[in-house]
Amino acid sequence: MLRPLSWLMLGWRDFRASGGASIFYGICFTLMGALLKVVLNKAPEYLSALTCGFLLAGPLMSLGLYDISRRLESTRSGLLGSVFSMRGRWSNIGVLALVLAVIMMVWARASLVIFALFYNKGMPTMHGFLSQLFSLNNLEFIAVYACIGFIFASIVFAITWVSIPLMLDRDTDAITSMIISTVALFVNVPATIFWSFLIVGLVVLSFMSWNLGFLVAMPVIGHATWHAYREVVGKHGDLAEFSVDSQNTSPLVR
Q1: Is 211 in contact with 28 (CB distance < 8 Å)?
Q2: What are 149-180's pLDDT values in tens digits?
Q3: Is 24 domain-assigned?
Q4: Based on the structure, what is the number of domains in the chain?
């Protein structure tokens, strides 16, 4: 169950070893979070939906960080290579990106519907919305919003927590990768539950630090996700399945 702590330690090691490459991605996440707050400052219903969507799209946006960790294993690192890590894999990763985009759009619509049901006399201001989150006067809204958000987040986490590193490493198709990711989740339930809480906790702390926490938190999480994939799924060629005939010949390796 506590294995995610070792993934974070390995992620921190890669963060330090990568130099400015990881910081570049941290800056991108920080600017994205700040942009959301600035543009949607007067529309908390959209801000909350897209903030959760920020989490839903996080695994895909961390693709470059996975590639940095992959390159560090072979003593090859660098920002430029990680930026173009999707080269040759556009079709597979594109399918997953489309799936995540659809989930985000459905979530955004569901979020607006929940706001409309509980605020049918007008949407709250940003100040009013934040006070609602820390108030017990509107438990129904908090409970419903949290439950619906949990469902969407669980689906995305299940299909992405090791699928994108898998596609990057082995060029596996999107459907197979999502199935392997989901199966890996159910095989490692205690560890994945703890890992998901660590991710949410670090992201929440990053938002509470005026997004500055993203400079370090998101790169470390991205690198740690690569090591989670390595431990759960293994390196290419580790999962060798042999089908041997009666003469013990013709081994077939997947």
Answers
A1: no
A2: 899 989 999 999 999 889 888 888 889 999 99
A3: yes
A4: 1
pLDDT recorded at residue 235:
67
Range of the domain at 203: 3-232
Nearest Cα to Cα of residue 103 among 46, 137, 146, 55: 55
Q: Which regions in the chain score pLDDT beneath 70?
A: 45, 75-90, 120-136, 235-254
Please check whether residue 176 lies inside any domain of the structure: yes
Please indicate, yes or no, if residue 66 is contained in any of the structural domains: yes
On whether residue 203 sits in a domain, the answer given is yes
Q: Nearest 10 degrees: CA dihedral of 27, 30, 32, 33?
A: 180
Residue pointed to by tokens 């670090």: 202
Could you read off the pLDDT of 89-120 as tens digits, one per residue?
667 788 888 898 899 889 888 888 888 887 76
Predicted local distance difference test score (pLDDT) of residue 252: 35
